[in-house]
Amino acid sequence: MRGPHNIIRLIRTGATLERTGAMKEVLDALEAPRLIRITARGLVWPFQWMGIKGDPNVPAVPRALTALGPAYIKLGQVLSTRPDVVGNEMATELRVLQDKLPPFSTETAKAEIEAELGVDVTTAFSEFSEPVAAASIAQVHRARLAETGEEVAVKVLRPGIERAFRKDVDAFYFAASAIEFLSPASRRLRPSDVIEHFDGIVTGELDLRLESASASEFAANTAQDTGFQVPQVKWEYSARRVMTLDWAEGASLGDNDALDAAGHDRHALGARVLGLFLNHALRDGYFHGDMHQGNLKVAANGDIIAYDFGIMGHIDEYTRRVYAEILYGFINRDYQRVAEVHFEAGYVPADQDVDAFARALRAVGEPIFGMDATRISMGRLLNYLFEVTERFGMETRTELILLQRTMVVVEGVARSLDPRVNIWDVAEPVVADYIRGSIGPRAVLSDLAKTVRVMSRFGPRLPGIVEAALIRQAEPRPEPASRNALWVMIAGTCGALIGAAVVAVLTTVI
């Protein structure tokens, strides 16, 4: 029965898109052929009565997705991080998608907490408010722990949200398969992969234990960051469908009037939020992937407080080094080095001309550096950079998509606080410091030490491996591969023995 249900859901979706005027924009974003456009709109037209009007004051696509409900709102949020799929214009439009829905009752929330935690709400909390925020997946209540008197934020998943999302996600998979079948040109956008990516994100957000773990890791990484706070998780009051954190008290980072009234320096706040993001991305490789004003507050002492950890970004150390070298090259206007880094990392095919690529990068960078400080944009630079690299055959780097999108958002936050924040002045010391610690001679020694440590861990197993190889070697007519394996094992043994000594030396040096 799943097929008919999916078809009905998709008809309702199409009818809503057509009725709100979003259908044309979606087809344009997917670069659908003319035949598909005519067919899609022709099939949907008789069913327009099934469509939802939505709020006429909201742009067409966000209007349609909001009207269709939680799964569609969340899909729009995820697609806003994928300009490679929907294009820059629609990605920007989707970033303003309102993630606000009517709250469910406080009594229902209390019942969910009691079922999940196995405690009586009136015993666990001396105070428990009506919902203070309601989004597509969960809502938040302000409460006070009875045991300690601490103020906390209690996040509770919507009842039945897992089942509702599962139905819509199944319909999304069905639609993606249909699009790929009917429009081979759309396959380069990988619709099924996009839905799989969305499915993974939603699955993670529907288990608040994972978000609690993200908050805990982020707090540990940033514990020493001056002027920055992450609310602590209250693990004893957290589970799969409930998450409890310290209450974040402060003025919204998007409320300039409140910040001014509290005496905060908005220029310093703008520079700090940008510097913090770059530090988290480069130093830790783990950053807040939804760092807009709605998820940031300023405490009375001026600290920036981050919350809502449903979307976190991770980039490995190698990618961080490549990203840092690219930024640093642009900061110093060394376009030849930026081009070489792209080739060394394998981002641009080796058969391309590195000098021609460097000239194209200069065409990207020089106009931006000619602007005054209020107009310099790292986000714009990264957008232009992706356009140029695409022309030179660079495939989409999915590990950089969220980083680039968050960089644009954070830059917007900094600009909204004070347009005079000089993006490059803030970025240069952070990037330079990371490069000094991660790309110089000291970093080479550190990498070597890590490599040797890994080799040395196999030390206890190597005698047995070598003995087995020797026994095989003694068998009649050994294969060349066996002789090669023997020498590999012997070399590995020697390497591990030497490594144990080298580790001790390097550990004292580094």
Question: How would you explain this protein's 3D organization?
Answer:
It is a single chain. The chain has 22 helices and 10 strands. It is of the alpha+beta class and about 500 residues long. It has 4 domains: about 1-100 and about 165-200, no CATH class; about 105-155 and about 205-245, Phosphorylase Kinase, domain 1; about 250-440, no CATH class; about 440-510. The strands form 3 sheets. It has a 4-stranded antiparallel β-sheet with strand order 1-2-3-5. Helix 4 (about 60-70) runs antiparallel to helix 5 (about 70-80) and helix 15 packs across helix 16 (about 355-370). The radius of gyration is 27 Å and the shape is globular. The chain starts with a helix and ends with a helix.
